[in-house]
Amino acid sequence: xxxxxxTTTSENSMSLKKTLSVASPLTLxxxxxxPVTKARACELVLPHGAVxxxxxxxxxTQGTMKGITVDQLDALGCRICLGNTYxxxxxxGPDLIxxxxxxxxxxxxxxxxxxxxxxxxxxxxxxxxxxxEEGVKFKxxxxxxxxxxxxxxxxxxxxxxxxxxxxxxxxxxxxxxTGPRVEEAxxxxxxxxxxxxxxxxxxxxxxxxxxxxGGLNAxxxxxxxxxxxxxxxxxxxxxxxxxxxxxxDFWRMVTLSTDHLPREKPRYLMGVGYAVDxxxxxxxxxxxxxxxxxxxxxxxxxxxxxxxxxQVKQKQYAKDLQPIDPDCQCPTCKRHSRAYLHALFKSDTxxxxxxxxxxxxYQLTLMRSVRQSIVDGRFPDFIRTFMKRLFPSRDxxxxxxxxxxxxxxxxLE
Length: 413
Ligand SMILES: [Zn+2]
Hints:
The protein is α/β, with parallel strands linked by helices and 413 residues long. The protein has two domains: 36-290, Queuine tRNA-ribosyltransferase-like (TIM Barrel), CATH 3.20.20; 298-407, no CATH class. The chain has helices at residues 11-20, 70-75, 85-90, 94-99, 102-107, 119-125, 151-161, 180-199, 218-228, 247-260, 275-283, 293-298, 331-335, 338-347, 350-375, 379-390, 399-407, and strands at 27-33, 40-46, 49-53, 55-57, 80-83, 112-115, 129-131, 136-139, 146-149, 165-167, 207-212, 235-238, 267-269, 288-290, 302-305, 308-311. The protein has an eight-stranded parallel β-sheet. The longest helix has 26 residues, at 350-375. It starts with 10 loop residues before the first helix and ends in a 6-residue tail after the last helix. The protein binds zinc ion. Its EC number is 2.4.2.64. It is found in: Cytoplasm; Mitochondrion outer membrane.
């Protein structure tokens, strides 16, 4: 059980821990730690089975994964995926999903699920949203009615969905916004975290993760880390990044966060899914990732490969009988050629499904290789080989990645 040891000296924080401390349905076992970087390989045990980390979590919408079935996802070795609270909370609605034995029953997915708070979707999808201390007010895109998503409401929906990991409602500010609004959002997110903790009806079955905010301001982020890590939550997410900020700011905020997060709890970096970002952020100490990119890009015919991406629609593949990636073990690469997928793309959406399967397999396989290299004690070498394969020449290495890796003692030759 992950109960957080009471090592803090402040009386105030002791009493806070006592009132909020509940045995959580999550165990994190650290299997190996990289002796050079901050990377670690763990086993995260959740109510629907064990998850090996570092892990990439594919994103579903409306309870279904676009372009892939739950059986296919399971067969690829996926042990945790994301459900979308905003869409599910609107339609078909939490009551129906509760009747269907939660989102697991509704989707017929036997593995773990993580649900978001719904807040981010609202702020990014709904134009007319307004944030007050109460919550996020917005007009329903379905019937125009005004709806308030409060921390309590978000947790109530996620309790109905029955996800293994729930996310707190946070006050989302775009990562490119600066000034007093960032500070306000950070403090409000802390207050909302306490309301979410109090609202959770199933602390013995569902894990609530806090989301570290503070924008690109190191002092604010540090203050948020100090405050949130005093709460006895089962895990922490690093939020408010991957929103178009400079990559240099991005990695510095990630590494600042992992420096101050407790070693014995999982660390989830939200919205990150490019291969380079994944490998670098594992080196910076993150365990969990999610992103719509691999599945979204598949629908445009872009297949992810160790040397970048392959655009199936391009003419050069019309007569190419090789699979997308000759080294890939996924069902698409075992069965179909680039030429076949190229032809199929012209007439049939099935091509998108085949590429979606390949792309999710690519992400999961990448993370398994990363993990194995950490376990074997050769993660720095893995990074060098990975970078060489992805970039044709050294001068194409993104400078932020070079700097980020150097900060954890990995020099790229
Ligand atoms: Zn493949």
